[in-house]
Amino acid sequence: MQPLRILFISIEGNTRNFVKNLTAYAAKKHAADPDLPEINATEIDEMTDFKSETAPYFCFVPTYLDGGNGIDNGVKELMTNILGEYIDYQDNAKALIGVVGSGNRNFNEQYCLTAKRYAQKYSVPFVANYELRGVPRDETRVYDALVARSREVTAHG
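That's the Class Ib ribonucleoside-diphosphate reductase assembly flavoprotein NrdI sequence above. Prediction below.
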């Protein structure tokens, strides 16, 4: 199986930390069973040169909002916009196969709202979520969700 491709944005380091741990987890799974994929992750930030994405990929996005509750009185996303611009670049949205969100459960309906909005905008599944930096069981759960979604996409060619 090809490596799972992940594009992510990390504002305070939580997403970066989770993706690093997830990548290490995937490497261990791959070492034990070569049929399980490793992870190839790329951080997107203001300095990233936009390029065409041709292989299927997932995006990992935290939620940062300024104003509104994101439900009934508007939403203004902060700091994660560059990832959306990257996905919108050329045909990159066509290769997106799923979204993983993170956030703080204390924000109730706003928890993972940016990821849910990306999933809706790009008509792809919201495949998994984790809180803040995640915990080891989140790595297992998210990895399994990515593998399942990747296999589903491959099966439907």
